[in-house]
Amino acid sequence: MTGIVVLALAVVVAVGFGLYRRTTDGAFRGAEDSVVEVRSEASLEAAAPATTWTQVAAALPDAVLGERATLVQFSSAFCAPCRTTRVLLADVSAREDGVVHLEVDAEQHLDLVRALDVRRTPTTLILDPNGAEVTRAAGAPRRDQVLAALSSLDNLKETA
């Protein structure tokens, strides 16, 4: 009898966790810190606040900041949702004016992953035209979530 109770409890906990992950996976949330303090190896004594873009640009020197927004995706080689996210974000950036998509290999850029507190792949950061992080999503976002986040960014620019 005790085994059945333990099994039932395990099933309830697993279903609850699954429902939680289903609702939160890929949902964009506000950036906790749009300005992060970073110290370069060359000059530890004079570190200055830097935008998220400063750190991304240091890791990816050929990267270009979008005029409207930049979608920065952190991926890993064996991550199936990362491939889906790559296709989605590339399509959104191709259809939306001024939006650029950058993909960062998390395994190749561990310092950047740590500095930006990326905890899982895929993680998508949305940067404003100045390079500040506006929002992020852990997990694979849906198209409507990405478009809503871009729309929110546009609304923020209009009210400023």
List the keywords.
single chain, 160 residues, alpha+beta, Glutaredoxin, two-stranded antiparallel ribbon, 44% helix
Question: Overview of this structure, please?
Answer:
Strand 4, helix 3 and strand 5 form a beta-alpha-beta unit. It contains 5 helices and 7 strands, in the order H-E-E-E-H-E-H-E-H-E-E-H. The strands form 2 sheets. Strands 1-7-6-4-5 form a 5-stranded mixed sheet, with helices on one face. It has a two-stranded antiparallel ribbon with strand order 2-3. It is of the alpha+beta class. It is elongated. The chain has a single domain, classed as Glutaredoxin (3-Layer(aba) Sandwich), CATH 3.40.30.10.
Q: Looking at CATH, which topology would you report?
A: Glutaredoxin
Largest sheet: 5 strands, mixed
Q: If helices are DSSP runs of H or I spanning 4 or more residues, what is the number of helices?
A: 5
Question: Stretches where pLDDT falls below 50 for ≥5 residues?
Answer: 31-48
- Spatial arrangement of strands, main beta sheet: 1-7-6-4-5
Q: Architecture, CATH level 2?
A: 3-Layer(aba) Sandwich
List the topology elements.
Elements: H1 2-24, E1 28-30, E2 35-38, E3 48-51, H2 52-59, E4 69-75, H3 80-95, E5 99-105, H4 110-115, E6 123-127, E7 133-138, H5 143-159
Parallel strand pairs: 4-5
Antiparallel strand pairs: 1-7, 2-3, 4-6, 6-7
